[in-house]
Amino acid sequence: MLTSPRRRFLVQSSSLVLLLTAPMIARGATLMSIRVWPAPDYTRLTLESDGALSATHQVLSDPPRLVVDIQGLQLDSQLRSLAGKVKADDPFIKDVRVGQFKPDVVRLVIDLKQAVKPQVFSLLPVAAYQNRLVFDLYPAHGGDRLMAFMRQQELLDRESQAAAGNAPAPKLAQAQNGQQDSLGDWIRQHRSELDGPQASQPQQFAQAEPGSGLPRQQATAPSDTLADSPPSRPDPVRRDRRNFRTVLLAIDPGHGGEDPGATGPSGVHEKDVVLLIARHLRDLAQNTPYMRVMMTRDSDYFVPLWTRVEKAQSANADLFTSIHADGWFTPDARGASVYCLSEGGATSVEARLMAQRENAADAIGGIDINSRSYQVAKVLLDMSTTAKINASLKMARPTLSKMGEIVHLHSKQVQQAGFAVLKSPSIPSMLVETAFISNPEEEARLQTPAYRKQIARAIFEGLRAYLDTNPPLARRRILT
């Protein structure tokens, strides 16, 4: 039996060894959240943790699946719940299986509905997020949907030129107005719409009524639709129908998915309310003869800023409108604003700060800065012309004026700054800040269908006023 001094020595020595080796034993990262964002073009899987994660992956076929091994992670309840986060209508993911492959390695087997080309990258902590490991699943053999749409558009233009007379525009469905009882009620009412069946389907563009050349009404969500019919003003085109062609409006609901945008005092996210406003604007435009619409997103998922520009450019859009809801440092800021791109510096300190906040969307939403697409996009975003900026200002001024007729204006002049989302090389573009969601009173207004309709109507009337004096003439050459 050990003597007492010898025993004390061994106990103390053992304690010292444990203290010295504790820092050398790597503690596995702890998962904070797992999110799955299905979109028409890709599905994103995000693992957020309190420490950096590294992973290897391989794509297998027959059946198609993605196998991912994540180092330094232990199987826990968060990971076990991953399969339940996959929606049945996800266009890419069929199911997810999770297991502890090795003592410090978790294996994910993602069963796929189609072959994919994954992009896997890590994101450092930013804004409210900690470390993120991102898996973007793109189709391996995706068709060129935008090119098919453009061919259809050219056909519709020819039909429009041959059409004799106008058919009446269809009326929109009735909807209830009024303030929601609470934030929870509002989110529950609109969650299915914000997630939307559109999230799992390729975007549906407006179709033409046979032989009429007029846009057919696109199906809208059951709630929060417009209660009034389209205005009876003259068509926003040259009166000489021989020179007519259809106008394509690109609508860009700001933020989405991983990027919530600004958040109001009661927790309402900018990405949600601007999507609903954008859908109102879409309905107004689609139910107006000789106008059609494309949206950069039609559900709750992240779209990089340069992809928004690229989508509008590839579709050969005539106009581009990005819709947002301001957030500011203090709750007393209020009112609507309209912004355009600036060739040089911003027109005000506030405009510069606003552009910096909006341009941070890519960092928050998460993009792979090493991808080839990102490098090409940087070139695309530096091609804006003076003529395009001047046309943008001509479009923005009547829009600001129309908004000033129904809501308080934060600035009575169109502001300019270096907004990345407005850097289309050839499309007149503006960014509309509909209200300050950081202002409690304006956040409450943004939660009401009536206010969202008013804002959409004002934007639409501004676009019509611009088109009345700047009608589109010949079809521009499609950029490739």
Q: Would you mind describing this structure in some detail?
A:
The protein is an alpha/beta fold and 480 residues long. The protein has 2 domains: 109 residues, Immunoglobulin-like (Sandwich); 325 residues, Aminopeptidase, CATH 3.40.630.40. The protein contains 12 helices and 14 strands. Strand 1 and strand 2 form a beta hairpin. The longest helix is centred in the C-terminal third of the chain and has 21 residues. The termini are far apart. The relative contact order is 0.12. The C terminus is likely disordered. This is N-acetylmuramoyl-L-alanine amidase AmiC. It is an enzyme of class 3 (hydrolase). It comes from Thiomonas bhubaneswarensis. Keywords: Cell wall biogenesis/degradation, Hydrolase, Periplasm, Signal. Its EC number is 3.5.1.28.
Question: How are the elements arranged and paired?
Answer:
Elements: H1 4-21, E1 31-38, E2 43-49, E3 54-60, E4 65-71, H2 77-80, E5 93-102, E6 105-112, E7 116-123, E8 131-139, H3 145-162, H4 183-195, E9 247-253, H5 270-286, E10 291-295, H6 305-314, E11 319-326, E12 337-341, H7 349-359, H8 361-365, H9 372-380, H10 386-404, E13 415-417, E14 429-436, H11 440-446, H12 449-469
Parallel strand pairs: 9-10, 9-11, 11-14, 12-13
Antiparallel strand pairs: 1-2, 2-8, 3-4, 4-6, 5-6, 7-8, 12-14
Helix pairs in contact: 5-12, 10-12
What distance lies between the first and last C-alpha atoms, to the nearest angstrom?
86 Å
Gross morphology is globular
Here the CATH topology of the largest domain equals Aminopeptidase
Number of strands: 14
Order of helices and strands: HEEEEHEEEEHHEHEHEEHHHHEEHH
CA-atom Rg in angstroms: 26 Å
- CATH architectural group of the largest domain: 3-Layer(aba) Sandwich
Could you name the ranges where pLDDT drops below 50 across 5 or more consecutive residues?
Answer: 9-26, 145-150, 163-184, 195-223, 225-242, 476-480
- Roughly how much helix do the residues carry, as a percent range? 25-40%
CATH class of the largest domain: Alpha Beta
How would you sum up the major sheet? 6 strands, mixed
Instruction: Record the strand order, biggest sheet.
Output: 10-9-11-14-12-13
Mean pLDDT: 77
Number of domains: 2
Strand content: 15-25%
Structural class from helices and strands? Answer: alpha/beta
EC number: 3.5.1.28
Organism: Thiomonas bhubaneswarensis
Keywords: Cell wall biogenesis/degradation, Hydrolase, Periplasm, Signal
Subcellular location: Periplasm
